Amino acid sequence: MATAGKVIKCRAAVAWEPTAPLMMEEIEVAPPQEGEIRIKVVATGVCHTDLYHLFEGKDKRGFPTVLGHEGAGVVESVGPGVTDFKPGDKVIPLFLSQCGECKFCKCPKTNLCDRNWSSKYHDIMSDPTTRFTCRDQPILQFMGTSTFSEYTVINQIAVAKIDDDAPLERVCLLGCGISTGYGAAVNTAGVTPGSVCAVFGLGAVGLAAVMGCKNAGASRIFAVDINEQKFEKAKVFGATDFLNPKAYNKPISEVLAEMTNGGVDFSLECVGNTEVMRTALESCVKGWGVSVLVGWTDVKDFSARPIQLISGKTWKGSLFGGFKSKDSVPNLVCDYMNGKIKLDEFITHKMSLEQVNDAINLMKTGQWYTFHSHLSIEYC
């Protein structure tokens, strides 16, 4: 391409400081270096983790930054040493890398990678090394990706090549939320046929967890949320029962215990709220119940009574649904294209990059959407 090897000027939504609205800016995106890929971002979703960094984490060392980590695009150019990608390839950036060489990548028990940005910089959620500049200063790349930009540069160990026929405005969601919730059910929890499950929180991650429970063969799936408007959507993904904790004068864990003869087999917390995490654990049946922490947070401690675990329950955590990223995302794309998993049903709004602050406000009200990082009549 004519831009290969050159600095690209493009639009990006820059978060200059915590809690402030994002600003549309012209940024400069440097050419990819050794082992890197420059990508033209075509579509992206907004994940609650973007909002977490902007509104909850508030660590000023993580700013200025370009948020966004749930995108899909096309390779514009590659740096030296890149052999598995070429210009024109459709790809999904990955906030969780897979180098294939570290002890974690070689271990089938985990999907962690020692070369991921989070190994050293989880507190600021960005590696200090960046290919972005704006107003003559470096701009961090959030979670190593930064999909709220028309172009981004990513290490090849954090990019998945996908089917050439994949619709980018749909499969972008597999970069985080859908993979996370779905995998938490089928991989981390290991939901079994005929089991009873409860999913706490019905955002995109929670709805994907419901879908995972359904596809794994659960016979009964409780959808738990204080926003009852989400129940109809949860039914689409396979939920069978619906509970609003505010509608009861007792803890929802007790309600679930009464409705399931002692508690559910599997529970998944998809909110990122430490109190809900404890409730999800307490909602499990003793002896074999498994509860999984899926929602992202790192600003509060969580606790539980020891008897909860002594009695035979298991408390687990899940990052990116337990999927080894580069290996699994292309397969998930194929699963969508073959009708094995849903994606279209997660999208409620389509917006332009200039509407990113509107998109963030929509998410804060509990809605879900994707917006597209280029103006197009077809998409906007």
TrEMBL record:
GO terms for biological process: formaldehyde catabolic process. The keyword Nuclease does not apply. It comes from Sinocyclocheilus grahami (Dianchi golden-line fish). Its cofactor is Zn(2+). Residues 17-366 form the Enoyl reductase (ER) domain. Coiled coil: none annotated. Keywords: Metal-binding, NAD, Oxidoreductase, Zinc. GO terms for cellular component: cytosol. It holds the Pfam family ADH_N. This is Alcohol dehydrogenase 1-like. InterPro entries: ADH-like_C, ADH-like_N, ADH_Zn_CS, ER, GroES-like_sf, NAD(P)-bd_dom_sf. GO terms for molecular function: alcohol dehydrogenase (NAD+) activity; S-(hydroxymethyl)glutathione dehydrogenase [NAD(P)+] activity; zinc ion binding. SUPFAM superfamilies: GroES-like, NAD(P)-binding Rossmann-fold domains. Belongs to the zinc-containing alcohol dehydrogenase family.
